[in-house]
Amino acid sequence: MFDPTLTTRTYPQTGAYAMPPVLPREALAGVRTRRILALFIDLIIVGFLAFALWLALTVATLGLALFILPPLFPFVAFFYNGFSVSGRHGGTIGMRMMDIEMQVVGGGRVPFIIAAIHAVLFYFSWMFPPILLVSLFTHDKRCLHDIFSGVIVLRRPY
To answer: Which of 23, 25, 58, 94 could join 38 via S-S bond, C-beta 3.0 to 4.6 A?
Structure first.
C-alpha cells in the first residue's frame, strides 16, 4: 500500500531553513531593485551617522580619540540595521522609502539579534559578490544571507 508520508519531505516551520509561505506575486514585485536603491540610501545615512559620531568623539576628546578610534562605520551599520529592522516599521529608512520590509520567514517582526546578524552576513557577502547572485535563482528572491538569517524581504503592503 502506498504511504505518502514516507515519500514526502517535511520542512520545519521556524528557523533559518523554514520554507517560506506561498506569497502573492505583488509581495515580491520589484524587490531586488528596491533593495539596491534602499541600500544606497542606507549607506549614505550610515556614512553620515558614522561621520557625525567620529566628529563628536574627536571634538569631545580634543583630538585624542583619533589615536584609538576604530573604524566606526561597521559599528554604526550593525546597530543601525539591528535597531531599525527590528523596530515597529520592519525596515531601515531606505527600506521604508522604497516600500519594502523585512520579516521572519514564518511572518512577524525580526528580533534585534537576527537583524544585526543579517547585516553582518550581508556586509561579509560583499567580499564574494557572486554570492549576491543567489537571489536570481531563488523563487522568493532571497539572497544567501536572507536564507541563513531566516528572513524575507517583501513589498509593503502586499
So the answer is: 94
CB atoms under 10 Å from CB of 45, counted, come to 17
Using alpha carbons, list the distances in angstroms from residue 34 to 64, 73, 82, 137, 145: 41, 23, 19, 18, 17
pTM of the model: 0.80
Q: Classify residue 18 by its DSSP letter.
A: P
Residue of 26, 16, 27, 34 lying closest to 105 (CA atoms): 16
Name the residue type at position 94.
G
d(CA 147, CA 126): 16
Give residue for cell 522604497. 98
pLDDT in tens, 28-53: 888 999 999 999 999 999 999 999 99
The strand pairing partners of 103, in sequence order, are: 152
Beta-carbon contacts of residue 104 (< 8 Å; ≥ 6 apart)? 110, 114, 150, 151, 152
Nearest partner of 93 among 152, 133, 21, 45, judged by Cα = 45
Burial class from Cβ neighbours inside 10 Å (0-12, 13-18, 19+) for residue 101 reads buried
Greatest mean pLDDT among 16-20, 70-74, 109-113 lies in: 109-113
Question: What residue segments make up the domains of the chain, in order of their start?
Answer: 27-155
